[in-house]
Write a structure and sequence with these properties.
Elements (H helix, E strand, L loop, with lengths): L8 H46 L3 H4 L3 H6 L1
Length: 71
């Protein structure tokens, strides 16, 4: 007689599918965070270069420079 196990084949399969889904989600999240970080770095560099070329800060470039001048 075979030894009794505490889990059924359906429970084992459900556990495996849940573990696989969690792994896939973690990989997708890591990939999205890496992309967001790279986009932020690119935006920062473009902002710094634009400021260096034009001599105006980002607030002046988008039309909010008057907020700085009022103070």
């Amino acid at each position: 007689m075979a030894p009794m196990t505490s889990s059924s084949p359906q429970a084992d399969e459900r556990w495996f599918l849940n573990a696989a889904a969690a792994q896939i989600h973690a990989e997708q999240l890591q990939r999205a965070e890496r992309f967001n970080g790279r986009a932020a770095m690119l935006g920062f560099v473009i902002g710094v270069l634009t400021e260096a070329i034009t001599g105006q800060g980002i607030l002046h470039q988008i039309g909010l420079g008057t907020l700085l001048s009022q103070g």
